[in-house]
Amino acid sequence: MSDFFRLKENMKFAKLLDDAGRPVREPLAVPGSVSFDAREGVAQAWAADGRTLIAELVKARVVWMGAAGTRLEGMEPFEGPAGTQYRAMEWQQIY
C-alpha cells in the first residue's frame, strides 16, 4: 500500500487558522483537492484545475477522517524577514 495518496477529488478545502494562528470564525471553503504523503509528512492543496498549488503543510498528519471530510494539521511554510519560517495550520476537506 502506498504512503502517498490524493484525497477525494471534487471537494472543498479550507484553512482553519489565520496567519496569527487564531481559529477562523467563518472558514472560506474553495474548490480543490489535497494530496498527502504520509512517509514525508507533506500535504499539498491544489486549486480546482488540479495544477495550481494553493497551500502546503510540512510535518502534516491526518487528525481525523470521516464520511463528510478530513482534518489535517501541520506547519505551513511562509517567507518571513529572516527567510522561510513556519506557523501552525489546520485544514479541513469537505467531501
Overview of the molecule:
The protein is mainly beta and 95 residues long. It has a six-stranded antiparallel barrel with strand order 2-3-4-5-6-7.
How helix-rich are the residues, as a percent range?
under 10%
Secondary-structure element pattern, one letter each: EEEEEEE
Low-confidence parts, pLDDT < 50 over ≥5 residues?
none
Tell me what portion of residues adopts beta-strand conformation: over 45%
Rg, Å, rounded = 13 Å
N/C terminus separation: 23 Å
Strand-helix topology:
Layout: E1 4-6, E2 11-15, E3 30-37, E4 42-47, E5 53-65, E6 69-80, E7 83-94
Task: Summarize, please.
This protein is an all-beta fold and 95 residues long. The chain has strands at 4-6, 11-15, 30-37, 42-47, 53-65, 69-80, 83-94.
Characteristics:
95 residues; mainly beta; six-stranded antiparallel beta barrel; 7 strands; 62% strand; globular
